[in-house]
Amino acid sequence: MRQQHHRPRPKQQQKQQQQQQRQQQQQQQQQQQQQQQQQQQQQQQQQQQSIETRTIFGRRGEEPSAADIVQLPSAATAAAAATAAAAAAANCGKRSVTTAATATPPPPPSAAATRAAAARAAGATAAATARAAAAAATAAIRAAAATRAAAAIAAGARAAAPAKQQQQQQEPQRQQQQQQEQQQQQQQHLVVEAGPFGGNFIFEKTVAVRHEALVVREARLQLQLDELQQQINK
């Protein structure tokens, strides 16, 4: 009688087995959901890395802009996000079950997830290094161009300074020559008005003198132009 009294009832055994099966099914579903979420996260991160790689290295010869700079998540951030997602999925999938068996804790991140996080971190570091190198090269090119432009401007100023100085020195002489020519013209005009000979002779004489003065002036100007041209060529 005691053996029959302590013997578990068949219905209770069936209920316990059914509860255990349900718990196992729930655990399997939770694990499958966690694996699917991890796979989706890995796919999204791989797509993001490929997009960033094309964005960073697809425009060769151009200066990187602010739109090309994309911050990648670090390995610790990715691992924390995966753990939080797994915990949220586990909390959503739990059901109240009155049983003495305790729920199994979620499995730790797999080795593949750890390797993927490390690869993402390495890719982020390489991309940041490439962007920094490109920015440094661009700055160096701009600095060299600015230095060359400043040197060219300074050389041009030094080359033009002697010519300008000589022109300033010759300016009083030129003004003096103009004054002399004007005085000669005035004197010739007076000779024409008060000449003792006929008007035709005086007119021809005046024209000849003026022509000679113009020839001399033209020759002087030509010499000045030749000197300036030689100084510029030096």
Keywords:
234 residues; mainly alpha; 0% strand; rod-shaped
Give a written overview of the molecule.
With 234 residues, the protein is an all-alpha fold. Among the domains are: 1-55 and 71-93; 170-233. It is built from 5 helices and no strands. Helix 2 (10-57) packs antiparallel against helix 3 and helix 3 (75-93) crosses helix 4. The N and C termini lie far apart (130 Å).
Flag low-confidence runs: 56-64, 66-75, 95-102
Number of H- or I-type helical stretches: 5
Structural class assignment: mainly alpha
Rounded to the nearest angstrom, the distance between the terminal CA atoms is: 130 Å
Percent helix: over 70%
Classify the beta-strand content into a percent band. under 5%
Task: Compose a concise summary of this entry.
It is found in: Nucleus. The protein is mainly α. The chain has helices at 2-6, 10-57, 75-93, 111-194, 199-233.
Layout of secondary structure:
Elements: H1 2-6, H2 10-57, H3 75-93, H4 111-194, H5 199-233
Main location: nucleus
Region (Disordered): 1-69, 163-187
Subcellular location: Nucleus
